[in-house]
Task: structure prediction
Amino acid sequence: MKQLFTRRRPTAIVLLLVLVAILPLNQVAAQAMQAPAPEGSVPVDPKDPYENWNRKVFSFNRTIDRWFLKPVAKAYRAYTPQMVDRGITNFFNNLTELRNFSNSVFQLKGESAVVAFGRFTYNTVFGLGGLIDVATAFDLPERPEDFGQTLGYWGVGSGPYLMLPLLGPSTPRHFGGFVTDAFALPSAWDAVESPEVYFARSLQVVDKRADLIPAESFISGDSYTFVRNAFLQRRAFLINDGEVINDPFASGNDEELMLENF
Result:
């Protein structure tokens, strides 16, 4: 088995590439939003200046989901015992605690770093490798932290809303954080050999999609707008550590019920 962290690229190089990609896109979006709209055209939503393109990608993602991912997730949900399903979800959630720990340190959040380290230790040692979430019983609830939140903590703007092929809703800052978390920061995934890691990643995607099926009943109105607003509200909630002031996205309780799934 490979040692932890042996496949990590240098963090500084990846971070530099992330910033090089994010900052120009934020600038271009800001200029596009400030430019006067042509006479007779539909005003550009400042949250979503690329809405026309995003809707096409959203439609593509829904087609892939409808014909492939959702049927697999429904079968998984139907035939997997609830206890096994819960254990799989707990296992993958436990793997994210190293990410939570690293980004808590980067954000100078000492208490959150201690909680993330404690959760990973308790769940790994006493929770059968993370299959049982014993840390929550020890009053150590999860505190999600990713590098997108770290960039926001240090003043990097979110940028415009983006719908990415296969990956779903995002922003330049969120996607930059995703890339950094995946390729630069320490991860428990480094201990998994190929090709097992690909099977494990596939199972994680299916498990996550299966967990989202009940939340679909809360979607109302235009599904694209609902998903966009729920995602942006959830990211604002995380960036501000649960404190969202003058939230422009909240329009009803349905969105609040779906936030935890993003």
Observations:
- The CA atoms of residues 61 and 67 lie 10 Å apart.
- The two ends are 32 Å apart (CA to CA).
- Residues 45-238 form one domain.
- Confidence is low (pLDDT under 50) at residues 1-6, 248-262.
